[in-house]
Amino acid sequence: MQIYLDTANLAEIREAASWGILSGVTTNPTLIAREGGVDFKTIITEIAELVDGPISAETISLDAEGMVREGLEYAAWHPNVIIKVPSTTEGLRAVSQLAKHGIRCNVTLCFNAVQALLAARAGAFIISPFVGRVDDTGVDGMALIREIAGIYRQDSEIKTKILAASIRHPRHIVEAALAGADIATCPFKVLQQAMRHPLTDRGIEQFLADWQSRMRS
Questions:
Q1: What is the residue range of 149's domain?
Q2: How far is CA 156 from the centre of its chain?
Q3: 100 catalytic, yes or no?
Q4: Is the pLDDT of residue 187 over 90?
Q5: Would you say 183 and 23 are in contact if contact means Cβ atoms under 8 Å apart?
Q6: Intra-chain end-to-end CA distance of the chain, in Å
Q7: How confident is the model at residue 207 (pLDDT cuts 50, 70, 90)?
Q8: Whole-number percent of the chain with pLDDT over 70
Q9: Number of structural domains found in the chain
Q10: What CATH code is carried by the domain that includes residue 54?
Q11: Out of 84, 159, 161, 189, which one is annotated catalytic?
């Protein structure tokens, strides 16, 4: 399973990229807005310079015509730009049209397996089920990943990648991988938490203490 970073913060992306684990980045209007009035094109192209992989740039239009227009514009910014559209009928129309131009799409805000199936049929490159938000409703978000993975396995024509989004904690990463997700996109703080363990810290402290004791003897 590939790891993407869910942010538009260049410092976070630069740091995570230095670990050698990033395969892509996802952004959305909320994440872009958090960066304080930065130019959308500028930040997407700067991200593409830091990470050699798919960079999701989300449309804001609600109609297919507007999504396609924005998608054609965003895709021209860099070859790695993936156009993000919502799981709506207008989104499906946009995906099918953009696919004819060879433009890859990430269909976002997916909350059921039927949306995922239809997005795949429309030609989506990525489907993004929001596991954390599904969990918030009292339903198992990872069950949705398993359902989609099972449906996709039944049809060899489907090449759409499953991206587990709305990742809330490190355990979500493990569960997504086991459920059959191709990608997990994570906030930076979750990636930081994923590499922390008290036994790791304790082991390092013990090894260093033993080494220093040896050097003093």
A1: 2-216
A2: 23
A3: no
A4: yes
A5: yes
A6: 47
A7: confident
A8: 100
A9: 1
A10: 3.20.20.70
A11: 84
